[in-house]
Specification:
Length: about 350
């Protein structure tokens, strides 16, 4: 057993980038049996939540593809419902019955099977989040806003739905950066950190605010990134976490909202560095915040799949296996407790 870096536990959220069939659902259900032995010999579930994404926020859309191939099994449902809501407002008409998404049914199945495993998913907007969380146990959803979304108003409306559900709201850091990396903390924040933390403050404009805002460091697309898909910047994460905590204090909301930070080694390492994901995730768990007294990351968000299943429909090259997720949990538990979902 290595020297304990911090007694503060860290959670692992994992699952395929995109779930599109029974292979993915059965894999997610199986993860609840993964165990890890924490410092002190206490055995817990190795997983804090599962990634169940049935809509993807791709960079572009082919409008000629009526099937919306690769956008996720629930994209056509969400797209049609969104247009229905627009037409209802435009024509002052009645809203038809809310549709049921396949992802929502899978989420319920997984939670029924595992006794309430938290479900994390990429939320396109408040309507998508609402349709998913209608079928997820209160307080056990972890929707996150994609890195391509930087509109404060969109964040506020998403937060309204998430806060009412009593769940965690995740906010991924923007993809792009105005400078080369790495940066020094003494250089101060850039427009990226200001945008990232600003989104967090828009979330607090909701009538019923989330009790936890989880910022997600997913790296930056910079010219000097080398083999990284998106070069990580732990100093940016340190600044953003401290900045949002300070903004919340200045707004008089200290004690009402918890700020946490997650790390996404799948989108930082990408396919060229997929063999480095296990080591990188373990290293992230050692990172300390700007004070040097508390851990920087409270959660890891990792793309993984059953090694016997077909490749996922998106980001296939950056997935690790369930066995490698176990390696990450075992490696971290040598110096820091793992927080399971129960």
């Amino acid at each position: 057993m290595s020297e304990i870096v911090t007694p503060v536990p860290i959670g692992i959220i994992t699952g395929p980038c995109q779930t599109s069939d029974r292979h993915g659902v059965d894999y997610l259900k199986s993860l609840s049996t993964m165990r890890v032995t924490n410092p002190g010999g206490i055995q817990v579930c190795a997983i804090a939540g599962e990634r169940l994404c049935t809509i993807k926020s791709r960079t572009d859309l082919n409008p000629a593809d009526a099937a919306r191939s690769g956008m996720g099994v629930d994209f056509p449902i969400w797209e049609a419902f969104s247009k229905q809501v627009i037409n209802m407002i435009r024509n002052n008409g009645a809203l038809l019955q809310k549709p049921v998404m396949q992802g929502a049914l899978w989420a319920k199945e997984i939670q029924d099977s595992t006794g309430g495993m938290p479900i994390a998913f990429e939320a396109m907007d408040w309507m998508h989040a609402m349709l998913m969380m209608d079928h997820i146990l209160p307080g056990t959803a972890i929707p996150w806003s994609p890195s391509v979304k930087t509109s404060g108003h969109e964040m506020e409306t998403l937060s309204e739905v998430v806060g009412e559900h009593g769940s965690v709201l995740g906010i991924k850091g923007p993809k792009f950066y105005p400078e080369l990396l790495p940066r020094r903390i003494e250089d101060g924040p850039t427009s990226m950190e200001n945008t990232w933390t600003g989104l967090g403050m828009y979330a607090l404009g909701a009538t019923c605010i989330p009790k936890t805002i989880m910022l997600i460091e997913r790296g930056r697309d910079v010219p000097n990134k080398g083999d990284w898909r998106n070069m990580p910047d732990h100093n940016s994460a340190r600044m953003a976490k401290q900045m949002l905590q300070k903004k919340i204090e200045d707004a008089g909301l200290a004690g009402e909202v918890l700020v946490t930070m997650a790390y996404d080694p799948s989108h930082t390492n990408g396919p060229k560095r997929v063999s480095c994901i296990v080591e990188d995730a373990i290293d992230a768990a050692r990172q300390m915040d700007i004070t040097g007294k508390e851990p920087l990351y409270n959660m890891l968000l990792i793309e993984s799949k059953d090694k016997a299943a077909p490749p996922p429909l998106s980001d296939a090259g950056q997935h690790i296996t369930g066995e490698q997720v176990q390696d990450i949990a075992d490696g971290i538990a040598q110096f820091r407790p793992i927080r399971g979902y129960k």
